[in-house]
Fold this protein.
Amino acid sequence: MGGTTTISVGSDGVAIITIINPPVNSLSFDVLNSLKESFDQALQRDDVKAIVVTGARGKFSGGFDISAFGALQEGKAMTTGLASKPGYVSIDILSDTMEAARKPSVAAIDGLALGGGLEVAMACTARIATSTAQLGLPELQLGIIPGFGGTQRLPRLVGLAKALEMMLTSKPVRGEEAHNLGLVDAIVSGDELLEKARQRALDILAYKKPWVLSLYRTDKIEPLGEAREILNFARAQARRQAPNLQHPQICIDVIEEGIISGPRAGLLKEYEAFQVLLKSDTCKSLIHVFFAQRGTTRVPGVTDLGLKPRQIRKIAILGGGLMGSGIATALILNGYQVVLKEVNQKFLDAGLGRVKANLTSSVKKGKLTQEKFEKTISRLKGVLDYESFKDVDMVIEAVIENVSLKQQIFLDLEKHCSPNCILASNTSTIDLDLIGEKTKSHDRIVGAHFFSPAHVMPLLEIVRTSKTSPQTVVDLLDVGKKIRKTPVVVGNCTGFAVNRMFFPYAQSALLLVERGADIYKIDRAITKFGMPMGPFRLCDLAGFDVAVASGSQFVFNFPERTYKSMIIPLMQEDKRAGETTRKGFYLYNDKRKASPDPEIKMYIEKAREISGVSVEPKFGKLSDKDIIEMVFFPVVNEACRVYAEGIAVKAADLDIAGVMGMGFPPYRGGVMFWGDSVGSKYIYEKLNEWSKMYGEFFKPCDYLAQRAALGAPLSSPLDQAKPRL
């Protein structure tokens, strides 16, 4: 894993210990052992009076080396010495070596001090930071708790309520706020950081500044009764926000142990809990997502060719609807000049108004200053013709899902844009070859599929046809990075990756309803599983027009495995369109709060008459487990098809696409990862059984059948399909 620390002693008797492990100075086992050795050396040397700990290249430390977690989960000792037991780092290195040292130590913090990095800093006698430094304990994002004493020291430095907030939300604080909270003792500029830290260490030695051990401070901890009230409130909030997760509750228990039984007891409980959580399914899933997200930008045959992204400064968007305005918002917020085109002034004014409303909302939430608002909105220009398209570097088409309309637009773009301009479509389902078939610019046609709302949702699906040039993909990957999206590069097919994987999601739910299952029970079971909302609530939110338009693409292209229900068309006949009309599968009040609608039964009964489906009593008694399996196993099945066809290069890319595009719970690792946790054999047997009873919709694909026969994971292919990339 590498990494080390260095030690240098100045003429003032202050030893500077520097953490070196690029790019973020993560705390590998080698670094932790080296840190202890450097500290021991500083303590033993007579020419050292005090110690400063800092990080190389403007970063203190980004935390424990996550790449080591896999070995820890398997119980492998990575190295010799105290650091081979990470749970003991908080006691052996931080408490007994650093904090208990007879020489004062000061953490000089610039850049990142996250996770284990902040825990090292909190074990020092004092902390000095720059105003731009970021300090936090984000471990709960990985299904674990702080393991180097953070659960005990942070509450004693910033108070119980703020410590709980920082740990449970995983949100860092900037240097200035950290200073106001008492987490750091002074704010200085980067240029004088080391010098001021040296002086602080000498002042502590001379008793000009307080010499206080963080672990034993009590002035910020509330009286026991009040502390218990705060802890119980935090428990209730965590249970409400994350009912399926245990580690937030365990984190609170560990903090409470330190308050009731003392910090040393708290450290021991922290170590024990850390070890258990490290091997939990939640931790394994979240760490998989962590690395999978960072791996989406590695695309064989594209990103390994040595191509550099071209400079893209000006981007045109066709269509100012919800998607177009959302894309425009994301682009101008991140420095791009944007031209927004509409067909008439009324539509253009509405589109520009939506962008302005998006930015105004950010101002109200304190995410954007008025000055930044004015600067951002100045990057946006509205037009009614193609005159301004001559010098744009990229165009994103975001009009309605109409093939002939999109084909005409791409013909127009070819005439009015430069030969190097990237021609992108935000289509969610239509084959890109079909959209661009009348043009001669196939090498620069690409899909840039955003998810609604486009300025909020983190995923960007980059769709490459067989003719799209690698340079075009590299350019779009760069844009995705600059607008803070997670890009996933996929091949061209109906629905691409996300919508293709999830088209069975709503269809399987409709199948269950027509056979007697309750709509609202299905939605409850799915949300309890961890989805943001069930398939029927999602359908209402998206709108029935969108559901029918996208669904028809799948019915046309995959007729043998789509379930055709008449429930939605029948509701449309009665002017129901979902949330926009306040009537869909649910009823909606003025505040858009959903409530069940007893009239839905009428549409279900009519649909049954048309399809000839009979109610089966067992469907009215389905357990949550049955519902989850019958809704999600077809999704896993379709994901296997997408993978086997080479639409995605890696199964992990499909996991990220599902998590970030559809809200699949990250603590379950993504569709393919979750499928592997359930087991390919079990999924195959269930689908095979249902296909015999209810038809081709449930029929397992060949890839799933092969994996099941071998008892092999879904995420490692039998024969690597030739990717459509």
About this structure: The two ends are 32 Å apart (CA to CA).
